[in-house]
Design the sequence.
């Protein structure tokens, strides 16, 4: 597993690869990053639209409150029962929203109890430096000064991988997963 | 003919929109089951749905086809939301434009869609776990059918917590109860009060029985309620009205659906229901049914549903108790 860092000293640009190819929905987070943490994102939303959760993979810091609005045309019943945060929001109608507080670390598998193809992952981590790769495998970690940091990477279907990342000015990083 | 034109029009619309701006999904559901009433059934549904993305924000569409086969016509096993007559049927095929402004929602839908009376969405009946439609929503029991479809226009105005819906069109039904040609009007209002969702509906339509047997119009009024908290959903509908002139049908059902996190992949459910069709003998019908069952999510989208049914009165089924079993799986591709 390897990560590449970008020219900006405090902003790490990277590419996540699976079997050598850029891969979407890889979560990468760092531990023990000095300095003040990046500002917490304002509004975190796991949307329900067209019988689908958006985004499919979400990574949040522990303690994040995630809004789960129903912007579809039918009722949904959002729940998570296995690991991570366990909840069942019950059936709620179009145009309304519910909030889940992801108050402990872990992976929550989110489903709708009515629509079997609806599934999403919310991973809550005890880190303030978290990123999820886009369709081209690219991700950005903000406010990371040069140095060596423990890092973790996860994607749906595999166990979390850990290692050490060296962030240096002008060096892009790359993360590889099986 | 009309069904084909509607489906083709919507398919063309989906293709004509700029590809990069669309969000289109294709979803398939396959199911098979058997009942101790010596019935077996298999079925599949294929649907294409999505929206126009940023190109025309608020425009959505859905096209759904269904095929189902049941070993016998007698009985209502496996007919919760889709027909099982051995033919390929076009179900819903509509375009919908939704505008949301300052908390107000206005939605206009045109095409072919399920009759918006009471608890009427396909997923409300097809995927909860019940393997049979409620008696008041099984076509041949002189009430309303879950396979009733409107071909027309539907408008929703209101806020998420209080809305009014109106539909005007012509029947486009599938399944065993096919309404005669004519016009249909449906009005529905829905309110959300905390954990409660309350609805009231009225329909004025044509009867599904032949004109030589059933004169006049079919008219029903109904109320529905849903309450949900901590993984427990209670819901029910009650309706009353005339399936045709000189007759009256009343009935309803109450469902309890429990899915607490500690239950893992298991959803437990139960239903109590009653239906009375008041007509001259020997056509009158008075019946009740109780159902208990569970839906177990086996692997990803694959689920097993079971149900034990106790039925009394004068149903077309011959057995007082029945055990139902169904297996279903779904897949989806996003574009």
Sequence:
């Amino acid at each position: 597993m390897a990560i590449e860092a970008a020219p900006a000293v405090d902003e790490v640009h990277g590419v996540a690869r699976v079997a050598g190819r850029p891969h979407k929905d890889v979560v990468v987070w760092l531990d023990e990053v000095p300095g003040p943490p990046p500002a917490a994102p304002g509004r975190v939303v796991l949307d329900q639209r067209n019988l689908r959760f958006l985004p499919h993979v979400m990574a949040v810091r522990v303690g994040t409150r995630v809004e789960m609005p129903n912007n579809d045309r039918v009722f949904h019943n959002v729940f998570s029962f296995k690991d991570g945060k366990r909840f069942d929001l019950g059936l709620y109608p179009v145009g309304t929203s519910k909030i889940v507080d992801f108050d402990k670390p872990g992976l929550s598998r989110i489903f709708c109890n009515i629509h079997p193809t609806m599934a999403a992952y919310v991973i809550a981590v005890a880190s303030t430096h978290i990123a999820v790769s886009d369709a081209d495998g690219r991700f950005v970690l903000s406010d990371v000064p040069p140095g060596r940091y423990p890092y973790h990477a996860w994607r749906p279907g595999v166990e979390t991988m850990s290692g050490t990342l060296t962030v240096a000015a002008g060096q892009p990083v790359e993360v590889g997963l099986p | 003919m009309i069904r084909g034109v509607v489906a083709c029009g919507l398919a063309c619309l989906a293709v004509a929109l700029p590809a990069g701006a669309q969000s289109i999904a294709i979803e398939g559901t396959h199911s098979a089951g058997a009942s101790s009433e010596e019935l077996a059934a298999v079925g599949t549904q294929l649907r294409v749905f999505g929206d126009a993305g940023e190109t025309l924000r608020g425009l959505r569409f859905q096209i759904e086809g269904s095929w189902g086969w049941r070993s016998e016509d007698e009985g209502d096993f496996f007919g919760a939301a889709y027909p099982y007559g051995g033919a390929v049927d076009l179900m819903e095929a509509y375009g919908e434009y939704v505008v949301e402004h300052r908390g107000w929602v206005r939605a206009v839908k045109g095409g072919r869609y399920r009759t918006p009376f009471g608890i009427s969405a396909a997923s409300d009946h097809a995927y909860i776990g019940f393997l049979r439609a409620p008696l008041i929503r099984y076509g041949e029991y002189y009430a309303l059918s879950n396979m009733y479809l409107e071909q027309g226009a539907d408008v929703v105005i209101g806020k998420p917590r209080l809305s009014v819906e109106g539909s005007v069109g012509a029947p486009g039904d599938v399944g065993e109860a096919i309404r005669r040609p004519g016009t249909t009007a449906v009005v529905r209002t829905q309110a959300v009060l905390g954990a409660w969702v309350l609805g009231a509906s009225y329909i004025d339509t044509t009867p599904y029985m032949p004109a030589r047997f059933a004169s006049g119009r079919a008219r029903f009024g109904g109320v529905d309620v849903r309450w949900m908290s901590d993984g427990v959903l209670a819901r029910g509908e009650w309706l009353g009205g005339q399936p045709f002139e000189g007759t009256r049908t009343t009935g309803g059902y109450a469902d309890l659906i429990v899915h607490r996190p500690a239950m893992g992949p298991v959803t437990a459910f139960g239903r109590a229901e009653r239906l009375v069709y008041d007509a001259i003998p020997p056509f009158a019908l008075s019946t009740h049914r109780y159902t208990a069952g569970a839906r177990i999510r086996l692997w990803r989208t694959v689920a097993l549903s079971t149900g034990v049914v106790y039925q009394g009165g004068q149903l077309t089924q011959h057995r007082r108790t029945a055990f139902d079993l169904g297996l279903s799986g779904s897949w989806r591709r996003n574009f």
Observations:
- Chain B has a mean pLDDT of 89.
